[in-house]
Write the structure tokens for this entry.
Amino acid sequence: MPTKRMQLPTTDVYTEDDKQLVVEAHLPNFEDKDVDVHVDGNALVISAEKHEQEKDKSKKYVVRESSSSFYRRLQLPKVADVDKITGDMKDGVLKVIVPFKELPAPKKIAIKKK
């Protein structure tokens, strides 16, 4: 008898050109209204929760309830520009872009000859 495997959501975290952090959460069973993304201190928090109810009067139980949830908390780098974080959801994949602040170029100090 084959065993039923539970598919757990995966999260990919990577940088693009050292200019931004990208977080991709694969949430195939969630809709965008089920997902919450926010910044808590210096952490990015992604959570999703879904509740379903099914009523079937032909069976002995009245209501069948199920719920699923997802939670990830990621420490943001110090260079993260939290005011410019964006996110979108397409085909069950939540993509959050965390841009990095542009760091000032090193200042060259002129050395005077005495």
In short: The chain is about 0% helix and 50% strand. The mean pLDDT is 85.
